[in-house]
Amino acid sequence: MEMTSKQRLLTALKGGVPDRLPVTTHHLQDYFRNTYMDGKTDIEVFDHLGMDAIHWTEPYRPDPSQGEYFDPLQEAPTNPSFSKRIVSDDWCITHEALPDSRYKTIRYTITTPKGNLTTVLQSNEYTTWVTEHLIKEKKDIDIVGEYVTAPKCNVEQVNQEAEAFGERGLVRGTICGFDISGQPGTWQDAAVLVGIEKLILATFDDPDWVHELLGILNGRKEVYIRSLKGAQYDVLELGGGDASTTVISPKLFRKFVAPYDARLIELVHEAGQRIAYHTCGGMMPILEDIAAMEPDAMETFTPPEMGGDARLAEAKQRIGDKVCMIGGFDQYHHFVNSSEEDTRAAVRRRFAEAGEGGGYILSPSDHFFDADANLLAAFADEARQCRYQ
Amino acid sequence: MDEIDEIYEAVLDGDMRATPEYVQAALDAGVSASAILLEGMIAAMNEVGRLFEEDEYFVPEMLIAARAMKAGLSILRPFLVDAGIEPVGKVVLGTVQGDMHDIGKNLVGMMLEGAGFEIVDLGTDVAPAQFVEAVRNGVDILGLSALLTTTLSSMESTIKAIEEAGLRGAVKLMVGGAPVTDGYARKIGADGYAPDASQAATLAISLIA
Ligand code: B12
């Protein structure tokens, strides 16, 4: 019997065998939708290409009893899946545009009773990035620890959206990242705040300070996770590429990543939710370490041609019975400058390597910006023909 | 252990405090600056590169080894100048326009420094005109790094800009970064490509040989 997209994705997510290979993608980039898809919405893109859909949503709510409210100075996020920030009188966020001939450049200032923290973000037509990190001196984390707000999940809104989305696919969220430019994984969040090279060096020079920072960020995420009870999410994302072995060592992963993110995964399960652990970068030396944190799924299995190291068949053998695997597809060589036959053949290879016994969702290994619509359609179509029954 | 071995081990362990101390002790004991550089520090960085290729060292170990080497070099540099030991070549590095990824580029710089090159790092998000300017000022090798598929085109336009400025013959061009391949490097007219920092050092040496 033909499954709905939701049944298919959920079956694979739980490690089971769906009717056919589920096929989806990670976040669709605005640049891609506008340049190649005539500005279609996410769901329109999924429908147009015949993929199993994902609805991303992350609505927050403030806790007025703790003096929290939505940031009145923040313009509404352009992407409807992002929430407005939660601030308080002791954690106020202002922003100003800085003159720059090349990029839109914005300085954010967080004002607290014990001083200000600043960060600068730049953006172009593709994306946004940090050019000045928020945490510049060791003592900055004391301010964060004392005054940072912790968002809570607006469960009612998630559930309304989940009802409306119905059988079309999965409802996906993210473990809250830090304000302004945060990321789900604890280490990943810290890397954005401090700068990854500086953070790596600090693990050697002042490990206690790094643990203190990770603890503060973890605490904030814990509050969010506890508020997730009853939310009809299918899966939430944690992790990030700065915790991959392209960037850090297995040793650092075991000391500074796993203890924190494993704790969050445990709490997520207590809140009745599932986790997809995201590692866009090298994973092979730490496959078992990631699986030992007991996420429900692991992604992105980026192949060597894209800067990762995934050998999908070997990964399937090593951890495929413990977690659902998501990703593994080389979007760089098969969504552009490829032929439909080559793209289809690549889909077949991924199915042969990781499809057996289910528990596998085909997806590009993370983001893509440029993609040929015909190749994407071939990618989705070939996956639809990879049948289990 | 003799003085050189101590320096070698300290760099390999990324010991930023011990390395300059051992360098000073070796100089005090009359070991030549060139032996300290070649047999101590450069040999250690070669080993770091080998361990990295073997997946025994990862980026963090490489970062601290390079930092230790830098600390040692700060003591050694005046003695190298006195002894008339010149860098083997000058390399200008940068991440191309629109791209902020710099870990890979920095490691390449460190390994090249470890191989005896003088490095000028232009940073990230470097416009073609800035690269052209650097080449005009005299350099043996220009190294371009890109990590985003969307910024590979900046790599190509940088090489075009160097050609248009009539400087292509004056410099060797090497390129790298996760999405870059040997084929792509050839297509855009680079002289060489290396998949990682230690092979970048080998490549640079071959380019100026
Ligand atoms: C760390 C990281 C970041 C950090 C960078 C921190 C920093 N200071 O560099 C941060 C968080 C800032 C970041 C930002 C973004 N990133 Co990023 N990032 C990564 C990640 C996880 C690792 C890259 C890395 O540092 N690797 C470690 C180093 C050591 O490896 P390397 O760079 O490849 O370098 C080695 C070789 O390539 C070679 N080499 C490198 N340069 C050169 C130069 C020469 C001359 C030579 C010879 C050799 C050489 O030697 C190096 C050492 O061995 C990759 C994942 C991946 N699979 O690569 C994504 C990745 C590159 N990022 C990606 C994306 C999408 C982004 C963002 C757009 C996301 C966003 N919106 O925030 C922004 C872009 C910002 C911008 N304008 O540049 C995508 C790119 C996808 C694509 N289609 O292009 C990747 C592939 C992740 C993914 N799977 O989606 N990122």
Radius of gyration of chain B: 17 Å
| Share of residues in strands of chain B | 5-15%
The total of beta strands of chain B comes to 5
Ligand list? cobalamin
Radius of gyration of chain A: 21 Å
Identify the overall geometry of chain B: globular
Termini separation of chain B: 34 Å
User: Strand order of the main beta sheet of chain B, please?
Assistant: 2-1-3-4-5
CATH level-four homologous superfamily name of the largest domain in chain B: Cobalamin-binding domain
Oligomer class? heterodimer
Q: Look at the structure and give the CATH class of chain A.
A: Alpha Beta
Task: Walk me through what this model shows.
The complex is a heterodimer of chains A (389) and B (209). Chain A has 389 residues and is α/β, with parallel strands linked by helices. Chain A has one domain (5-61, 147-385): TIM Barrel (Alpha-Beta Barrel), CATH 3.20.20. Chain A contains 14 helices and 15 strands. Chain A has helices spanning 5-13, 30-36, 42-49, 140-147, 155-165, 186-194, 196-205, 207-226, 250-270, 287-292, 312-319, 331-334, 340-354, 373-384, and strands spanning 53-56, 60-61, 68-70, 86-88, 92-98, 104-112, 115-123, 128-132, 152-153, 169-174, 235-239, 275-278, 297-300, 324-329, 360-364. In chain A, strand 13, helix 11 and strand 14 form a beta-alpha-beta unit. The longest helix of chain B is centred in the middle third of the chain and has 24 residues, at 59-82. Chain B is globular and about 55 Å long. The mean pLDDT of chain B is 94. In chain B, 56% of the residues lie in helices and 11% in strands. Chain B has two domains: 3-82, Methyltransferase, Methionine Synthase (B12-binding Domains), Chain A, domain 1, CATH 1.10.1240; 89-208, Rossmann fold, CATH 3.40.50. Chain B has 209 residues and is of the alpha/beta class. Chain B is built from nine helices and five strands; from the N terminus they run H-H-H-H-E-H-E-H-E-H-E-H-E-H. The A-B interface holds A 124, 126, 129, 131, 196-197, 200-201, 203-204, 245-252, 285, 305-307, 332, 336, 368-370 and B 14, 55, 57-61, 63-64, 67, 98, 100, 102-103, 106, 147-150, 178-179, 181. The complex binds cobalamin. Cobalamin sits between chains B (59, 98-105, 107-108, 143-145, 147-150, 174-178, 194, 196-197, 200) and A (127-129, 196, 241-242, 244, 246-247, 280-281, 300, 302, 306-308, 365-369).
